[in-house]
Design brief:
This protein is α/β, with parallel strands linked by helices. It is built from 29 helices and 26 strands. The mean pLDDT is 92.
């Protein structure tokens, strides 16, 4: 239904807010915003400014309230939602809180109306044969309720191309449900010589369409071949993949085909502008390469003794899909593969360097465990070597909200995995739905935190009323109404508000279950009490709003997301993570012709050619962490692995009823502790990943620790305001499709920006 009565923010109100409130920009904040979330305005020949972005985002969200889609919304509802929209504008404009990066990019656009999925950062799908159902994509040869091997891969491809990340489960129970592969398939990809992509497509493996047609004109030839002309659309790409995968299996009412021809002649050439989502097209080349590679995996699997797909095969297909999406040059693919803890082939699959560099880089990999799992030594050995796999405890996710609230059998019983960053436990087809609060900034700006978290909960709740494309997702969302209200800048807030970190020490005790001595953390009671109060505020707000909307209360409410780009906007520590260093150089990469570069140069920032990528410039930003000189300050370079585990466990116990995304950094000397700590916290954390602390071991590292003296020296060279200089130099005009290079939305690099 369309909105009957639309809430619009008054320009006089916005002008008043601009006079009384200043955004809490970090050192990289405005530049990051301008090249990440500011949309192109064709009528003005420039990108948005921050007030325009916030207005678009708030109006796009507030008008999702289903009461506005009825014939006669009451004046009370209109007034309450108008006040709420105004509060949200002030909150987000000041950067005291923000919706997810996806919302900053999509909310309030026409694309949101066409693709409600685009408001959600990430998704989860179980890799097993499934029915497409009443979805916007369904192959013509299938009935809606007919399970098909292609469905989970089609779902993954579709969501990745819409800019979302996808977690996917290849645990043994799922992969075993694939039937035997019935046949090998000969795949031919054709393209017309009239296509502007012709030469590049031939290099990628295609053949001349006219020549192929001329040599395959007999009725016998036509009967042997399944021919499909791929439409110039996202859906067309997905259906091409689906047809290829399903051709390898015996499906009811589907004639077998051992030869498939996929014609790419209609696909727009490289460089063509993409309407709606934004950016430019890649041409058919990434799709051609992906289809040929996927076909090879399926043919090889068919020739094996079992003629079945393995978890590694399924992960490879997922990774090839992600690689193709990345090659599109607009969207950043984010994947997390979840395998079985006993599957050594899955755990070690990234040790194949050739395949790692070809496509296996495309996912972060984790293993599913329960609280009874004890064999952490092989996992820890792999983590120490490569930083993978991560751990996902499905037992805790299904039977616990906050750990402090105790065991509730089946409270979230349909959970099968997580989003790529691991902060939201998800059922099949379900998305994460995030909103991020910076308590440090909110309190500085005079906000009542109870009101802030109420606004956050209501914002996220409305997202569940979007128009979702896939039936499997609609069912999960309507059942769960899951939201994820995150606290970010946690380390900054704890030090500023409470004068200490949450872990005040450790006490030595004997763990009766393992018969070993462990260090049990001691938590600050004032922080514990405040965190619990804020959780209750979110819970109360959700219950109240659910009654107003006559819908299910959200099955779970809170999380800690890893943050990243959004935290850069506000200049805060990322999620629960400690700052990388008290003082550092943060490097950001720009296209060489970006009009922001002259403004940055005029303001004194050091700029040099990127040593890794052509036509790219690397800009250095000297950054001081909030509270850097506080005696209680700790950074990722010196905080112990024990304190990081304990901090994650604290947030899982008292704040997050979903999960806590955390990438624990460790020094080489701490690697021997990993297995024991994973086992110690098996009843306390739902997902955990680890990475060795790298410092700045390579040239032009994204983050390079420096001393205070070096920071102060570099700061002297910087004068002027980049936004003001940019405006002066360009007269308000900007460049289409300008974007930062190699930028990730999350601290882990797992989740996409848009």
């Amino acid at each position: 239904m369309s909105v009957i009565k639309k809430i619009i923010l008054n320009q006089d109100f916005i002008a008043q807010i601009l006079k009384t409130c200043q955004p809490h920009w970090g050192k990289l904040g405005w530049v990051t915003y301008k090249r990440t979330y500011a949309r192109w305005l064709p009528e003005k020949q420039r990108t948005e400014n921050w007030p325009e972005t916030v207005k678009r985002v708030v109006e796009g969200n507030i008008n999702l309230d289903p009461r506005l889609q009825t014939a006669n919304p009451t004046s009370q509802v209109i007034d309450e939602l108008t006040t709420e929209a105004q509060d949200l504008f002030k909150l987000i404009y000041g950067l005291a809180a923000t919706p997810s990066g996806r919302n900053l990019w999509i909310s309030g656009t026409d694309y949101q109306q066409r693709n409600g999925d685009a408001l959600n950062n990430c998704w989860f799908i179980a890799v097993r044969p499934q029915a497409y159902g009443q979805s916007h994509i369904i192959p013509a040869y299938l009935d809606q309720q007919q399970p098909a091997p292609s469905m989970p891969f089609a779902f993954m491809f579709d969501q990745l191309m819409k800019g979302g990340g996808v977690g996917f489960s290849v645990v043994s129970q799922n992969v075993a449900r694939f039937p035997q592969i019935a046949r090998q398939v000969k795949l031919t990809v054709t393209i017309s010589s009239k296509s502007r992509s012709y030469t590049d497509a031939l290099k990628s493996g295609a053949v001349d369409a006219e020549k192929w047609q001329a040599t395959h004109q007999t009725a016998d030839d036509q009967a042997k071949v399944a021919y499909y002309q791929v439409p110039d659309s996202r859906e067309g790409w997905v259906l091409a993949l689906a047809r290829l995968i399903d051709a390898h299996f015996n499906l009811k009412k589907v004639a077998p085909a051992s030869q498939i021809v996929l014609d790419m002649s209609r696909i727009r050439p490289k460089g063509t502008r993409i309407k709606g989502f934004g950016g430019t097209a890649s041409g058919p080349m990434p799709l051609i390469e992906m289809l040929l590679d996927v076909n090879q995996i399926l043919n090889t699997a068919q020739s094996s003794a079992a003629s079945r797909l393995t978890a590694v095969d399924c992960t490879d297909i997922g990774n090839l899909i992600g690689k193709a999406v990345v090659a599109g040059n607009v969207r950043r693919s984010a994947e997390m593969a979840l395998g079985s803890a006993a599957d050594q082939d899955f755990i070690t699959m990234k040790q194949d360097q050739t395949k790692l560099y070809h496509h296996r880089w495309a996912s972060n990999n984790s293993v599913a465990v329960d609280s009874g799992f004890a064999n952490y030594e092989p996992v820890a050995a792999s983590v120490a070597k490569s930083g993978e796999p991560g751990i996902v405890n499905l037992d805790l996710a299904r039977n616990y909200g906050r750990i402090a609230d105790g065991y509730h059998p089946g409270i979230d019983g349909a959970v099968e995995g997580t989003n790529p960053c691991g902060e939201i436990s998800l059922s099949n087809g379900e998305p994460c739905n995030l909103f991020e609060v910076f308590p440090y900034i909110a309190q500085k700006q005079g906000w009542n935190l109870t009101r802030v978290f109420e606004l956050a909960a209501r914002y996220a709740k409305r997202v569940t009323f979007s128009n979702y494309d896939w039936e499997v997702s609609r069912r999960a969302i309507q059942k769960n109404r899951r939201i994820g209200i995150s606290i970010s800048g946690i380390q900054d807030w704890f030090l500023a508000e409470f004068g200490k970190r949450v872990v005040t020490g450790f006490t030595t005790k004997q763990d009766p279950k393992i018969g070993q001595t462990i260090k049990e953390p001691i938590y600050d009671p004032a922080i514990t009490k405040r965190i619990d109060q804020l959780y209750q505020a979110v819970k109360t707000a959700d219950q109240k709003y659910s009654q107003e909307l006559n819908c299910q209360p959200s099955i779970k409410l809170t999380t800690v997301k890893p943050s990243g780009t959004v935290a850069k906007l506000a200049g805060m520590s990322e999620g629960m993570h400690f700052h990388y260093a008290p003082y550092l150089i943060q490097r950001i990469r720009f296209q060489a012709n970006d009009p922001l570069l002259p403004a940055l140069k005029a303001c004194g920032y050091h700029i040099e050619p990127d040593v890794y990528t052509k036509n790219t410039m690397c800009v250095e930003f000297p950054v001081k962490a909030i509270n850097a000189d506080d005696p209680h300050f700790a950074s990722a370079g010196n905080v112990s692995i024990e304190e990081q585990f304990a901090t994650q466990a604290f947030l899982q116990k008292y704040w997050s009823d979903n999960a806590v995304s955390c990438t624990i950094t460790f020094q080489p000397k701490e690697a021997a502790k990993i297995a024991g700590l994973l086992y110690q916290y098996r009843f306390n954390t739902k997902s955990t990943s680890l990475l060795p602390y790298s410092g700045a071991k390579f040239k032009q590292a994204p983050k390079e620790p420096i001393t205070k003296a070096v920071y102060l020296e570099k700061l002297k060279a910087i004068t002027g305001d980049v936004a003001a200089v940019f405006e002066q130099q360009n007269g308000g005009h900007d460049q289409k499709d300008a974007a930062l290079i190699g930028q990730n939305d999350c601290a882990t690099g797992a989740c996409p920006i848009k």
